[in-house]
Amino acid sequence: MIVKVRHPLPRSASTMAIMSIHGRRTILLVQLPIPPLGPEPIRGNVPLAPAYLKLFAEKRGLGSFYDIEILPAERANALGDQALVAAIVERSPWLVGFTCYLWNIERVLWIAEEVKRRLPGVRLVLGGPEVTPDNAWLLESASYDYAVTRRAARHRVSSGSRPAWARSSESTALLRLADTDH
Ligand code: B12
Question: Is the entire prediction scored with pTM above 0.90?
């Protein structure tokens, strides 16, 4: 299998300096709730994983070069599908990371496709408990660019029509993706 992580961390100081000149890219992290059956407020969807990933990435120094934003829970929990797509697109993200659970995965894939249709250059990354090496249904989907699996701690890197895998930890995978030149 082909590994396509072009720039393992850490980047050279000169490359980081060039990136900072061009301004920070936006990384948007999204965690969607269990779809509600009625109008009652959403409970239980706490974006702990996005918060962890943001803190981890910023601790590793990426905050100087990437604006790492979490889609606020009030919006993630209240907006409908089209409004969610609009909320993501209006932030002009360079990369969107979705935390995937069994209750949001189908919606995530639909939203990812819509976001890609409107922002063809965006990188779409899936992570979370639903992204496992044995979830063929998900891994064979063409709706996203990268998947970070849990147990095997690998990430998939699209290379045209050929997916490839590289060893990584779940959290450092996000750093590696942010560090991949495009
Ligand atoms: C805390 C917790 C809760 C809390 C809060 C959940 C929340 N955050 O919204 C409460 C008590 C509310 C809860 C409720 C439920 N939970 Co719960 N919960 C957990 C628990 C114990 C920890 C989740 C957590 O936040 N961990 C901390 C974060 C930092 O870690 P993490 O989620 O693992 O994220 C890491 C990776 O997944 C990855 N990652 C995650 N997102 C992304 C995104 C990208 C882009 C990348 C690169 C990586 C990445 O990187 C992160 C850092 O390493 C897990 C079990 C577990 N030990 O993981 C179950 C778990 C998430 N819950 C589960 C379930 C089923 C439920 C309930 C449906 C139970 C029920 N029957 O009511 C409800 C529904 C929740 C809801 N949204 O309404 C399942 C989900 C299964 C699945 N495949 O989706 C889990 C995995 C338990 C299990 N093994 O079955 N839960």
Answer: no
